[in-house]
Each structure stands twice: as C-alpha cells, then as structure tokens.
C-alpha cells in the first residue's frame, strides 16, 4: 500500500474564494448599516461630541476586525467579532449622567471580567453542552426579524425590493453562490434608476481616535460594567457559539472569550464598550454561500475583519456612503443574505427533535423580546428551551423504565428454568 499524500498546509490566499470576499463585505455592510449607526443615539443621549462617537466606531472596527482575523486564522473557523449590540441599548439609558472617563473605566472592568469568564472551565463547558437543535432554534429566532424587515421593506418599496427578491431566486437557480452578489448589484442599480437614493458630497478623510484615560467608580461598575458583562455573555457569546455550532464549527469557548476580552480592553481606551463574538452576522460568513468548502470558510471571516478595519479607518466616509442607499434596499439585502441560514436553522431545530416543544419555546421566548432583570431575550429563550428539554428527556427515561420487559425462555435465569432442561452437574462449566 502506498502512503496517502500529506494534507496541504492551510494557506489563506489559496483557500480564499471570490464568494468569501463578497460574504465578508456584505456582513460588514449590514453591520455598519444597522447597529453601528445606533452609537449616534447613545452619543446624543450622553451629550458626547461627534469626535467621541467617531472614535468609538474606530475602536470597534479596528479591534473587532483584528480579533476576528486572529481567531479565524488560529482556529481555521469563520469567527467574527463585533461589539455588544445589547450593550448599546443599555448605554442609551445608563450612560447619561456618568462621566465618560468613568464609563471608560467600566468598559475596561467589563473586559477584564470577560477574560476571567474565559478561564472559568465550568462555564466554557456549559457553553459547549447546548444541544445542537436548541442552538439551531435560537439562531432561527435571532435571524427571523431580518426576514420580517425584508418583507416589510417590500410593502414600502415593492418595485425595488421585488426586483431584488426576483434576482435572488433567479440567480440562485443558476449560481447559488452568486445570488447575494446579484442582489447587491441590482439593489444599487434599481435604487439609482428609481430615484430612491440620496447622493451627496462625500469627503474622504481618516478618522482620528481619541485616547481617554479611565477613571473607576463604584457607581459606574454597578451600573455599567456588571450589566455590560452579563449582556455580552447572554446576548452575544451564547447565541454566537450557537450559530457556529449550527454551521458545524465548535471552537473552544475559553480562547474566544479571552481574545475578545483583550480586544475589548484595548478598545476601551478609545471609548468603545465590549467586543464580543458575532451572532447574527456570523451566519453570513459561515454558511454555504461564503465558500463551497466548509474548511475554508474561515477566509470569509478574515475578509470581514479586513473590511471592518478599512471601514473604521474612514468611519465618517463610509457612514455617508451607506446613507446614499434607501433603508429598504439595505433591509432587503440583509434579509436575503440570511434567508438560507434562516431556512437551515428552522429545519435543524425542528427536524432533529420531532415532537419536542423545546425548540418552539426557544423561538417564541427569543422573538418576544422580553428582558426580565434586564437580561436579553436570547438568554431567556435558550434557558427556557434547556429546561423543557431536560423535562422531556427525564420523562422519556421514566416512561422507558416503566415498560415491562418480556423475557423469552432462552433469556430466563437458571432459577426459573424447568428442571427437565437444566444441565446435569457434571456438564456444568467450572466456576
């Protein structure tokens, strides 16, 4: 027999693919068109300057991009890093009234807490023990609102969105990997042709980060650091690992938490809160559209990191460029880019556990948006699903134990066998 040829060592440039580049670009476009612009609402509520808001965006893009690149190259898995979107919602109400230097101290404290969570093995083991079908249901619940937004966009601009939807399904029949690219091209062209975009002068200029020295206070720790840590874990890391598991990737949680914590610590000095594991956007770089070969989809996440850094260097320029497109086009692009992930997650969530109500409960609770104790709905959704899953497993075992076992004559013990069929003592095997 001849020995098998050795496997080729991974090579980013050889492993990359045009669809990996496109998937990375689409993921970052959607991120910058969605949660990133919310930081201006936080800045306005806390009376922060535009320069501070730009520095916040700069810190997120640069350090999240670097964290995603490092993790993806190290693990050869498509790991995307982003900031905590639930954290932005918290800061909208919790940051006003707290001096920004103390907020930076709270951001830094939260980063250290995330690093410590990454060294707590029972916690990292619990993350890896979430049943795959519940992770799939959680992923579906996270993604479904983007499908709803695309449908609502069709109601507002039926011609624009209808052309994008038609393009997606037509190209998908011919070249599935190019469907999202076709949607992007048609969306831009149709927006221009229908007079729906808003062209404006765009200045090309680098964004300058602002270094802020942290101050620490008990008030900021209790009101910002602890809630931010909890939201990062429950709202980003838990669903983020679930997304990766659904797509066939299971990185060790500890190193991911530690790298994101270190990136968060660096970003805090320029005004940015927690950097975490991407959940929603991770579907774009980890699904079949990102690369035909699952082992090479890590390149899509690397490209996403590259684009994120480029966007961050010119944060103001790219925000103005995104403002040219109508919001309906961006909503349709996001919904169509995630449509395949929505379908596969729903199938995996309900197909792999027929008759179980746990996946349905995960979807319902997560979509409800409830936030008891200020904790995000995604955490309560997976917690409710795990509780029902445990009850169903316990009930199934109990019912199985109560089923009487009918023994055949051959399976009966010697004590119950008829004397006529017992072997004579001399024929018995020695003990």
UniProtKB/TrEMBL annotation:
Domain of life: Bacteria
The protein's name: Benzoate membrane transport protein, putative
InterPro entries documented for this protein: Benzoate_Transporter
Transmembrane segments: 20-43, 55-75, 87-117, 129-148, 154-171, 178-200, 220-244, 256-281, 301-322, 329-350, 370-391
Stretches for region Disordered: 407-431
Ranges annotated as biased composition (Low complexity): 407-420
GO cellular component annotations of the record: plasma membrane
Pfam families according to UniProt: BenE (PF03594)
């Amino acid at each position: 027999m001849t020995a098998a040829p050795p496997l080729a060592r991974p090579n980013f440039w050889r492993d990359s693919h045009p669809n990996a580049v496109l998937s990375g670009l689409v993921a970052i476009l959607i991120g910058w068109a969605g949660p990133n612009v919310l930081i201006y609402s936080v800045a306005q509520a806390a009376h922060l300057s535009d320069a501070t808001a730009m520095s916040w965006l700069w810190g997120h893009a640069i350090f999240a991009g670097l964290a995603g690149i490092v993790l993806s190259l190290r693990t050869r898995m498509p790991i995307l890093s982003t900031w905590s979107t639930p954290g932005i919602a918290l800061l909208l109400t919790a940051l006003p009234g707290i001096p920004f230097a103390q907020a930076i101290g709270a951001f830094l404290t939260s980063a250290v807490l995330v690093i410590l969570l990454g060294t707590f093995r029972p916690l990292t083991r619990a993350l890896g023990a979430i049943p795959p079908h519940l992770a799939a249901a959680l992923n579906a619940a996270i993604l479904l609102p983007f499908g709803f937004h695309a449908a609502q966009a069709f109601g507002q601009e039926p011609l624009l969105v209808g052309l994008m939807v038609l393009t997606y399904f037509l190209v998908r029949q011919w070249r599935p990997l190019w469907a999202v690219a076709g949607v992007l091209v048609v969306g831009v062209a149709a927006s221009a042709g229908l007079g729906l975009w808003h062209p404006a002068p765009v200045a090309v200029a680098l964004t300058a980060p602002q270094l802020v020295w942290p101050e620490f206070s008990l008030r900021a720790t209790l009101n910002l650091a602890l809630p931010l840590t909890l939201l990062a874990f429950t709202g980003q890391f838990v669903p983020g690992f679930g997304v990766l598991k659904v797509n066939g990737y299971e990185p060790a949680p500890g190193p991911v938490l530690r790298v994101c914590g270190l990136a968060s610590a660096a970003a805090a000095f320029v005004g940015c809160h927690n950097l975490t594991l991407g959940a929603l956007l991770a579907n774009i770089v980890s699904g079949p559209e990102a690369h035909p070969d699952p082992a090479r989809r890590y390149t899509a996440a690397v490209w996403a990191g590259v684009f994120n850094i480029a966007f961050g260097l010119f944060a103001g320029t790219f925000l103005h460029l995104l403002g040219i497109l109508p919001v309906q086009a961006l909503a349709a692009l996001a919904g169509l880019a995630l449509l395949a992930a929505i379908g596969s997650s729903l199938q995996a969530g309900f197909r792999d556990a027929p008759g179980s109500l746990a996946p349905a409960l995960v979807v319902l609770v997560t979509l409800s948006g409830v936030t008891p104790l200020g904790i995000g709905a995604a955490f309560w959704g997976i917690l409710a699903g795990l509780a029902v899953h445990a009850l169903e497993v316990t009930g199934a075992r109990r019912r199985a134990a109560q089923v009487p076992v009918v023994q055949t004559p051959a399976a009966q013990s010697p004590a119950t066998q008829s004397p006529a069929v017992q072997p004579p003592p001399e024929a018995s095997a020695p003990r």
